[in-house]
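Forum: Protein Structure Q&A
Topic: Joint prediction for protein chains with partners

I've read a bunch of threads here and the consensus seems to be that you should model interacting components together rather than docking separate models afterwards. I'd like to see that in practice. Below is the full input, 296 residues plus whatever partners are listed. Could one of the regulars post the assembled result?
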Amino acid sequence: MLTVILIMLAGIVLGYFLRSKPQLIKVLNKSTIWVIFILLLFMGVSVGSNSEVVNNLDTIGLRGLQLAIVTILGSVLLSWVAYLWVFKTKRADNEG
Amino acid sequence: MKDSILIVMCFVIGLILSFYQWIPSYFLENDISSYVLYLLMFVVGIGIGSDKEALDTLRKINFKVLLVPIVVIVGSLGGAALFSLLVPDLTMRETMAVGAGFGYYSLSSILINELHSETLGTIALVANVIREVLTLLFAPVLVWAFGKLAPVAAGGATAMDTTLPIIIRVSGNEYGLMAIFSGVVLTILVPFLVTFILSF
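Posted by a regular:
Agreed with the consensus. Here's the joint model:
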């Protein structure tokens, strides 16, 4: 797991030094989406050959939907508190 | 949005190909995907390091603005952690790893797939795609019910790109800037947080 982080940090450092080469950066940034396409294709392949996943797609879909809802709810409720305490008071002219 | 559809399509194509066993066994026996993941992390890193604007955005920090990504992190991970108490089939570590995707589904699902399991990787893909879709659909309702910061919080990492237009529309330009800041911070944090949570 550490490998993933170290490789990314190496990329950040290299990216910082590559700032003087905007052409190269442009090409690299465009290539990111293709690497993501390939990886998601691979991911689909590994998931499709995993019978445990294929047989439980309904449960997996349900858990995905539930987790989307609870993470949004957690963020939104906390942002409501922050909005009322910090953001809204600074601009009381909005709603009074 | 176009990219989101293409990404999900790639996953579905892969799923169908291997489900009907149209994939040469070489690909299944040799785990080349972890090397492609390393390549992705390297390119993502270069993207972050070379992005002058992203780093400049990070410099304009004040307490109010810094609060936004903190709200998203605590809210998402808290919601995910509480949810794990309600279901028998997922541990707190697993739900929190999915929550730490903050809507950045491509990277979070790939990482979780490699570092943990295909089941959790697929849950992460579904959960984080739906997070983006729900934010797009319900942004106006969220503002009405929970104030102008709500769609920024719901959007998570996507607030800097895919959900930014709707956020600016429903909350205004002022919140658009916060959305970009929060989205940039969260996008950078996703790989670190997901890896960190799964290391327990």
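Chain A is about 85% helix and 0% strand.
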